[in-house]
Amino acid sequence: MKQRKSSDANKSSDSNKLGDSIPPWSKPVAVAEVPETGQSVHLRADEATRAAIAAAAGLASLPRLEAGFELTRHSRDGVRVTGHVSATIGQNCVVTLEPVQNEIDEPVDLVFIPASASPSDSPPPSVDDEDLAVTDDPPEVLRDGFIDLGALATEFLLLGIDPYPRAPGAKFDSPPVDDPAAHPFAALAALKKDRGENGR
What we know:
Blueprint: H1 13-16, E1 28-30, E2 39-44, H2 47-57, E3 61-74, E4 78-92, E5 99-113, E6 140-141, E7 146-148, H3 149-160, H4 186-198
Parallel strand pairs: 5-6
Antiparallel strand pairs: 1-7, 2-3, 3-4, 4-5
């Protein structure tokens, strides 16, 4: 799973594409309302939401975006969120510029705790139950007692986007290594040569 920074000061550049304003997809859930038995949440973005996210993320299209989450209580006032974010995205091949469509399926496994709590407050994982193992990421800090699952799904969508999409079979033909013209300083050498000849 891709690593995700929990601190606001360390947000990824992908997340910053959406800015600090209200995200295009906002589905807040109050932690206090998550039952002790847990809660399942399935989200599917509508057409207007997908269009807004596609424009913010620089995608050619976003015909499908959905997420499935399992929310379970963690410690006293925290919540663990597991699940998947899946999407179908349209991009342009970086080689041929022709349209390409890619599928995204990003796993989510995060723990949210109140700002007043510390990571040491979290209970230790059970070695006999993989489902109770702690996540690789540090805990996230809850904001006003809510988790915005829409914003969370959008963030993991951005993490799953290939920044250099290629159409099947598309290749970038680089100059042969033994070609003198392919040398990075070939143009500079040619310029110096021309100046030397003109100065005679």
